[in-house]
Amino acid sequence: xxxxxxxxxxxxxxxxxxxxxxxxxxxxxxxxxxxxxxxxxxxxxxxxxxxxxxxxxxxxxxxxxxxxxxxxxxxxxxxxxxxxxxxxxxxxxxxxxxxxxxxxxxxxxxxxxxxxxxxxxxxxxxxxxxxxxxxxxxxxxxxxxxxxxxxxxxxxxxxxxxxxxxxxxxxxxxxxxxxxxxxxxxxxxxxxxxxxxxxxxxxxxxxxxxxxxxxxxxxxxxxxxxxxxxxxxxxxxxxxxxxxxxxxxxxxxxxxxxxxx
Length: 261
Ligand SMILES: NC(=O)c1ccc[n+]([C@@H]2O[C@H](COP(=O)([O-])OP(=O)(O)OC[C@H]3O[C@@H](n4cnc5c(N)ncnc54)[C@H](OP(=O)(O)O)[C@@H]3O)[C@@H](O)[C@H]2O)c1
Hints:
CATH class of the largest domain: Alpha Beta
CATH architecture of the largest domain: 3-Layer(aba) Sandwich
Order of helices and strands: EHEHEHEHEHEHHHE
Number of helices: 8
CATH topology of the largest domain: Rossmann fold
Strand content: 5-15%
Number of strands: 7
Distance between the termini: 34 Å
Bound molecules: NADP nicotinamide-adenine-dinucleotide phosphate
Shape: globular
Mean pLDDT: 96
Number of domains: 2
CATH superfamily of the largest domain: NAD(P)-binding Rossmann-like Domain
Structural class: alpha/beta
Radius of gyration: 18 Å
């Protein structure tokens, strides 16, 4: 019952990993604020989080690449819930490509979506979380962060920035009762990974398990993860069962990563 009544803002949470986190924390009794761009998807997500058991859900339409829209998320959550105890920073997808494939506009868009949204949200959340007596900030990044891939240069560059932001912040705000951690997903059956699995089912006439296993070629467990499995880790971090956990990065990738440190 540690999450009961806690007020948590989870961004990019009308689908996929963010939605799974919102459903999990809502089921544990948290009052949950979510955001996304598409109004229909937001409404359906809100209903599903309430169905999961959340006592209250605030759905805010916002583009995380838009500074003004991001600037409204924390104040509107605080106004609706009377405060804030936690923040989960998740976002959407950025362009694939290598250095010579990408224009300045794509770099700027990825910077706004991945890095500046994390900067703006965490900066806005510090004062209300501290005023509530402390709480948690969790950044969702990517397990590929430690393994640069040429076609994922935008993700590598800007998620490295988010990881550095998280680490710096974990020092800066610990004295105000705020713990800052990072959860790094590997392959999960959501978003682009799901689209790839679906395409393989259509194009190759194989079933979803077979397509999932093919996508998960480098995962020793031989499958992609379910969003709920990622949400369990976020819930573990936020429920405060390990209160000395701060400045940590937890990869949830079925063992796919090969780096030792
Ligand atoms: N799935 C994986 O295997 C995996 C692995 C590593 C990292 N990641 C990263 O984790 C994040 C979430 O991935 P996912 O698979 O859960 O994606 P998803 O299923 O496509 O869900 C993304 C969520 O974020 C919202 N969103 C997307 N762009 C947004 C924007 N500009 N402003 C506000 N909300 C936005 C979407 O709603 P709207 O489209 O309506 O805005 C949706 O609710 C992404 O950054 C992805 O790169 C995913």
